[in-house]
Amino acid sequence: MMDLALRRRFYAEELEAVCRLRSPALVDAFAAVPREHFLRPGPWVVLADADFAAGIRTRTTVDADPARVCHNIAVGINPARQLFNGQPGTIGVWIDTLDLAPGARVLHVGCGLGYYTAVMAHCVGPTGRVVAFEVDETLASEARQNLASMPWVSVQHGDASQVAGEIFDAILINAGMTHPLDAWLDALVPGGRMILPLTAALAAMGPTLGKGLVLVITREDQASLSARVLSFVAIYSAVGLRDDDLNDRLGKAMLGGPQQWQTIARLRRDRHEASASCWLHAETFCLASA
Description:
Layout: H1 4-19, H2 24-32, E1 45-47, H3 49-53, E2 59-60, E3 74-78, E4 83-85, H4 88-97, E5 105-109, H5 115-124, E6 129-134, H6 137-146, E7 153-157, E8 168-173, H7 182-187, E9 188-201, E10 209-219, E11 225-236, H8 244-254, H9 258-261, E12 266-268, E13 278-281, E14 286-288
Parallel strand pairs: 5-6, 5-8, 6-7, 8-9
Antiparallel strand pairs: 1-2, 1-3, 3-4, 9-10, 10-11, 11-12, 12-14, 13-14
């Protein structure tokens, strides 16, 4: 059998090739961070793209060999709640887009058991700082234990609506939102980037899942924020931070299709009247084409 370290390296380089990861540091992080350390004991309930195509919702690994999770699959944290450690090929692209560098300050909202927090912490190194929030108290406690070997990581129990005046070079929102919080936008430094999944909860998917768009928000300077669509996503909905009215308006906006949402170019925070350039216009923000 292949040595586990070699298997992790193969897993990381497969992600690099298939997902076109640009960052060598991120590839090294995927090779170095043991995913099974950030999961509950196996065998594991897993889910891959092919499972959807075959009409199978989940399956269980045949044993608890750590090699079973060295693949581009989602792994159950609490499958009964539809809560998974997401696909590395999806979240890896989000992290790659953040352009993490040694010494960077990172905010991770929705850290689960801490796997992707550890991957980002490996990228920024001991001179950096990672602040991770998890709204589920049990998961936050487990993540704190899992990340104890990385003292530059702080795990906090909460919804991250308050970030204590800190500033960040990169923010990863790892749950479906209906809007960006002002606290997060205010905390982003010039040149900093935020990954923001904006999703509409759908009755057919149950109360905990939504579908929508992943946005890359970049602070160009103190006064302006650019925005672009990175991908489409289905993801666990944020707890306690969503707005029902915006959920409905977001769902209607997405019905316009790619020809409309691909024109999104900036996030406006100034008060203005809705116009044809506004894709999603709200009281505190607007996603617009111009």
